From TrEMBL:
CDD domains: NT_POLXc (cd00141), PHP_PolX (cd07436). Gene3D superfamilies: 5' to 3' exonuclease, C-terminal subdomain, Beta Polymerase, domain 2, DNA polymerase beta, N-terminal domain-like, DNA polymerase, thumb domain, Metal-dependent hydrolases. InterPro entries: DNA-dir_DNA_pol_X (IPR002054), DNA_pol_lamdba_lyase_dom_sf (IPR027421), DNA_Pol_thumb_sf (IPR037160), DNA_pol_X_beta-like (IPR002008), HHH_MUS81 (IPR010996), Hlx-hairpin-Hlx_DNA-bd_motif (IPR003583), NT_sf (IPR043519), PHP_dom (IPR004013). This is DNA polymerase beta. Its EC number is 2.7.7.7, 4.2.99.18.
Length: 574
DNA sequence: GCCGTTTTCGGCCCGACTGTTTTCAGTCG
């Protein structure tokens, strides 16, 4: 995707400038612009055509020109020139924890090291310790860092991250010196993937808390350990960071530690204009002598936002995507909550590839407080998932009719119907017309060109029987990337035809993602948040789908399955 | 390189930890 490509180039330019020792603020401008571009919901080509590039946060005249240049010529001359000065492999060195621009430059200038393998060789041979300002300890750290990089400390999906985070929190929360505890960072902001897990604790005895932390049984190695913070690595290679602060600083620290960085920077700038200073210990009068006892605020996040003249901002919104401006005008959306969800519209039973009966799935949904649930087993063409033939459909239908007489939840007769390479369904119109809910889905032909996939999805929108399109971009974390779609055209078709688009809550899918979902909302598309459960325990994944919707600024009115069954049946197609 | 209710120049968030020093630079979040 173009936005991502340009963002990556800007990030590379920033890294090259760092190594060159260029103006740090210029470097920050490139990094800020890169972050900003990744949050732009529209395609940059459209924004450029309408001359709105410079309206993007962090993009000025100069960077707008560079984006235009890339759109027109598929290259940026300035970037090409820079690359000649700094060999490509040198940028890879920056991915090693502990190696920054200064060290990378030193290694290249003195020893002509420009890739990770060469660096490893020199470090093993003890050839780094003769460099100025670098001794054995740093050599060891570099080797340890390289080991981490080689292990591929990738980002992990939210589900995996929460398993580790919950474990640490449950083991630490009852320790005698722990007063308050919370996870923070991108996990608290519910980003779809996270790199490490951040935990914040308030305590009067930080050293004892940090001792307990480093002794948690999952800890395999200690990366660092200071008076108030520490970082460890688990056996699974997950990094967990801990910060300990006094109890009256908990709110300020939670704010700081939750980020995002861009949100914090802007918040601190706002504070500066009011003659205040925010750090992780609280809010202070900027001119007074540093005295942490004299914080004006800091116990809770809420009082800090209030002091700056705005309401509380939910962590999911803290990406510097306009949330601070909206908060100052008191125009933040009332975000959807898990409690707003009235039913789940995508799940499987024993009829296809699920692991529980329809009755079990329905009872589990009832326990979650739902009013309705759609059992959308696979259709006949998806043989690997035991897709239902007409005889099986009949049996399933009769079973549902029978169950509906005795249960306090309404079971909807549904299907997840295959969309073939041209966007046609494998069930006939007549068969489709008998379902309460039809979910259309792509499970093959992911590599079609953008135009073809877009046409296929639009055709599905125009099918009068298809109520919802499941996992609209096909991405599966760690397996395959999303296919290319012309989102502008696709979302317009969905909005025009009243087709709901799914936010699939499976943590390895989360599809639509936050940025696309916000684009869909802005295009007038109605969303269905579903779990795609194959197991009763997976119904709880709904919180991840809701999180995506919250990150997309959605209220309950943007989401179809917050409606009562009666309302849902009224607003859906047909 | 961006940005503006201290506005077109002169600012740009703030602090902890480590390793190397003898007061600090580099890195990280």
């Amino acid at each position: 995707m173009l936005n991502k490509k340009v963002a990556d180039i800007f990030r590379n330019i920033a890294h090259i400038l760092e190594i060159k020792g260029d103006n740090p603020f210029k470097i920050r401008a490139y990094l800020k612009a890169a972050d900003s571009l990744e949050n732009v919901t529209e395609d940059l080509e459209d924004v450029e055509r309408e001359g709105r590039l410079a309206q993007i946060e962090g993009i000025g005249k100069d960077l707008a020109a560079k984006i235009s240049e890339f759109i027109g010529f598929d290259r940026i001359k300035y970037y090409d020139e820079l690359k000649k000065e700094v060999p490509g492999g040198l940028l890879d060195l920056l991915s090693i924890p502990g190696v920054g621009p200064k060290t990378a430059k030193l290694l290249y200038d003195k020893l002509k090291i420009a890739d990770i393998n060469t660096l490893e060789k020199y470090a093993r041979e003890g050839k780094l310790r003769n460099l100025e300002g670098l001794k054995e300890k740093t050599e060891e750290n570099i080797l340890r860092g390289i080991e981490l990089v080689k292990k591929g400390r990738e980002r992990m999906d939210l589900g995996t991250a929460f398993i580790t985070a919950d474990k640490f929190i449950s083991l630490l929360q009852d320790k005698p010196y722990v007063k308050k505890i919370s996870f923070a960072g991108s996990l608290r902001r519910m980003k779809d993937t996270v790199r490490d897990i951040d935990i914040l604790i308030s305590s009067a005895h930080p050293e004892k808390v940090i001792d307990d932390f480093t002794r948690v049984e999952e800890v395999k190695s200690i990366l660092n350990k200071g008076d108030t913070k520490s970082a460890v690595l688990t056996g699974d290679g997950v990094q967990v960071d801990l910060r300990v602060v006094p109890d009256n600083s908990f709110g300020a620290a939670l704010l700081y530690f939750s980020g995002s960085k861009a949100h914090n920077i802007k918040l601190r700038q706002l504070a500066q204009k009011k003659g205040l200073k925010i750090n992780e210990y609280g809010v202070f009068r900027a001119r007074s002598v540093e005295d942490r006892a004299k914080a004006i605020a800091g116990k809770t996040e809420n009082e800090i936002y209030k002091l700056l003249g705005m309401p509380f901002i939910e962590p999911e919104l803290r990406e510097d995507n306009g949330e601070l401006e909206a908060a100052l005008k008191n125009k933040l959306p009332v975000l959807i909550n898990s409690d707003d969800i009235k039913g789940d519209l995508h799940m499987h039973s024993l009829y296809s590839d699920g692991h529980y009966s329809i009755k079990d799935m329905a009872n589990a949904a009832l326990k979650k407080g739902y009013d309705y649930v759609a059992l959308t087993d696979h259709s006949i063409a998806l043989k690997v998932a035991n897709g239902l033939d007409l005889a099986a459909l009949k049996r399933k239908r009769l079973e549902i009719e029978k169950l509906n007489k005795g249960l306090k939840i309404r079971i909807l007769f549904g299907t997840e119907v295959e969309l073939d390479n041209d966007g046609n369904t494998d069930y006939s119109d007549k068969v489709l017309s008998e379902f309460d809910i039809v979910v259309g889905a792509i499970h093959s032909g992911f590599r079609q060109p953008k135009e073809k996939i877009t046409k296929r999805l639009i055709k599905a929108c125009r099918n009068r029987h298809i109520d919802i399109i499941a996992h609209p971009t096909g991405r599966l974390w760690g397996v395959r990337d999303a296919y290319e779609v012309d989102f502008g055209a696709f979302f317009k078709a969905a909005a025009d035809t009243g087709t709901f688009l799914e936010i699939n809550s499976f943590p390895t899918r989360l599809d639509l993602n936050d940025v696309n979902a916000r684009h869909a909302k802005e295009s007038g598309v109605k969303i269905a948040i579903s779990t795609d459960s194959h197991h009763i325990a997976q119904l709880d994944f709904i919180r991840f789908g809701v999180a995506v919707a919250r990150r997309a600024w959605m209220t309950k009115h943007d989401v179809a399955n917050t409606l009562s069954l009666k309302e849902l049946m009224r607003v859906k197609k047909k």
